[in-house]
């Protein structure tokens, strides 16, 4: 079942095209990661999904309803954590959590207190005294104490310490285990790698890659390191080989899956001294995509 | 030791750079207000006799409490009149300027984390606070000298150079006292809001001490900076010791602030912060509860202030008959009508002024939507199961309730004390009705505000200009002989003058209808646009 679906979603701010035909689809029970650098359109997409911004073109639906027209109905089943959390300086954290719960239409008091304890928040302090991390905790507690079907997090862990990041992950797993769907934007790629089932990479308002991490890895191929007895000429000219760099007396490079066989055969003729291979991390995928689209080199995708 | 003050000079330039508009605007407005008062008093009253008639009416406890004790009544020149009626009020606003500026540059910067950046540079520990105090010292001196010289330059009767300079110095010196006081509170309190709040509370307290002291006990009045500064009596006795006393107190307070600053940790304060609620109260359960909770303190303060305003107008009603006999100009302002007492002629004038003041909190409540949106906090609300209609309606409803309460309070304040002062009382309903009939006009202004929020949020401040224009037209329209149609450009100009005119319910209903249409249009605009941050 599809929970979130956008088609050709575009958003213009004056002449600036913040989103340019975004298509994403999130299925029930899935953790969907949304990655891209600052200003690429992550937050804009999420804010359109929440009915805070109105789409210029295209459609966006949550639970099969229009995100703009049926915002209130949708929000009864959605918990949202914005990227830049500003709270009311003269309300306490506890007051804000309760207010948010009531605005959604009821929440579980026991769970609220459990979350406050788990995140180690002092709810008696005024929001003006909270650091960024503590403000983040307030909205995360409000989100997780809501019994929502879809959780939307915009860079949820920025400002949290590693211990709190783990607490956050635990609650994401818990929600997933209960069959809830989660959309999470981040530029902390290790976090996305750890939590997400599927990932979309956005760049300048366009989705340039989407799929499971495994599919993406297959598309991208492996990262190789090789040291040979004889020098290898034309390594960088071989089809399917990217990002060749001299490293530690040998060469490190990236090679496409379908060219792997040919490349290894070719290399073996030079007498392999040492050969290492590892799957690309999300960071490798990400950087490769960006470098390629930046230089216009193409290939691989 | 010298390390404590390293780079004070650079930081001073930085403060001046940040306030390069704010500071000149403040100073200029004091000069204009003081010069304006001299010009107004000089033109308004034909001769010495008229002024002395006014002086006599000021000889009552209510007026003494408001502006201070009478002096120079035997020779009530324009100078004496200006100093007597304007000094304490102007000084209180100079104090307010100092409070806002010092708080902003001391605790404000500290709270926002900007001071931390500065402190991490090779600057002295006390440089920042010293820089603020030195800039404010310069500003107050400049304010005093420029105001004095400008007043003297008018060469009005009885407004000599000596008295003018003393008048200016009294303003500047009072400013210095409150700059020092705020600097001390900035060390005691842990945040900017607390600093400003404590300082303004102190200002009000000193004003009240002076008011009570001036009426009942001279020594009590002398214990307040606003009380002793009045004893300078510019243009009449020209005494300088109050100014010197103020400067001395300011130096002592500044030294204390610097000492406290040196012995405390960054981001800490001497006053303990008490823990707040860990859970929200039952009233904080929706956008309306939130709107109320956020503005509660301000609205209570406005209610008190407007009630006091009504009461103070009420307190002078008894003096009005005498007041009018002396002055031609006011007889021009109040159109003579057959069959009404002077008091009854005066009630609608007071009510219109109070209604315009009562509009301020109501418009502020409505425009709060824009502030919330800009600060990214509305996103939390509309991101949950709350429609935009409900958000705007909540603020609109609170604005309407605010307008209602404020109008009733001003009318009641005026009526209760007015009747206590009058021999022939007027039914309380007349007073309250005269105020309350302005509700459609305020609803109209709320509607205009909402229209801006819906379509042109960044231009919403135009509402304030419109209100200022309304005040000008309503207050001075008659006096300046403005044509009738100018008065009709503001909703306040369409409101019937109770008890002088028959209430035309058609006009009120029309205003109300337009107000509702504007509001609905605004809310619809807000519903169909992006939230901006």
Distance between the termini of chain B: 46 Å
Number of strands of chain B: 0
* Uncertain spans of chain B: none
> How many helices of chain A does DSSP assign?
10
Major beta sheet of chain A, specifics? 6 strands, mixed
Q: Give the % helix of chain B.
A: over 70%
The rounded Rg of chain B comes to: 25 Å
Beta-strand content of chain A = 25-35%
Order of helices and strands of chain B: HHHHHHHHHHHHHHHHHHHHHH
Assembly type: heterodimer
Tell me the radius of gyration of chain A.
22 Å
Structural class of chain B: mainly alpha
Give helix and strand order of chain A, one letter per element, not per position. EEEHEEHEHHHEHEHEEHEEEHEH
Please count the helical segments of chain B. Answer: 22
- SSE class of chain A: alpha/beta
For this entry, give a set of tags:
heterodimer, A: 301 residues, alpha/beta, six-stranded mixed β-sheet, elongated, disordered C terminus, B: mainly alpha, 22 helices
Description:
The complex is a heterodimer of chains A (about 300) and B (about 525). In chain A, helix 3 packs parallel to helix 5 (about 130-145). Chain A is an alpha/beta fold and about 300 residues long. Chain A contains 10 helices and 14 strands. Helix content of chain A is about 35%, strand content about 30%. The two termini of chain A are about 25 Å apart. The relative contact order of chain A is 0.13. Chain B is mainly α and about 525 residues long. Chain B is built from 22 helices and no strands. Chain B has helices at about 10-20, 20-45, 50-55, 60-65, 80-110, 115-120, 125-155, 160-190, 190-215, 220, 225-230, 240-265, 285-325, 330-335, 340-375, 380, 390-420, 430-435, 440-455, 460-475, 485, 505-525. In chain B, helix 7 (about 125-155) runs antiparallel to helix 8 (about 160-190). The radius of gyration of chain B is 25 Å and the shape is globular. The two termini of chain B are about 45 Å apart. The model of chain B has no long low-confidence stretch (mean pLDDT about 90). At the A-B interface, helix 2 and helix 3 of A face helix 13 and helix 16 of B.
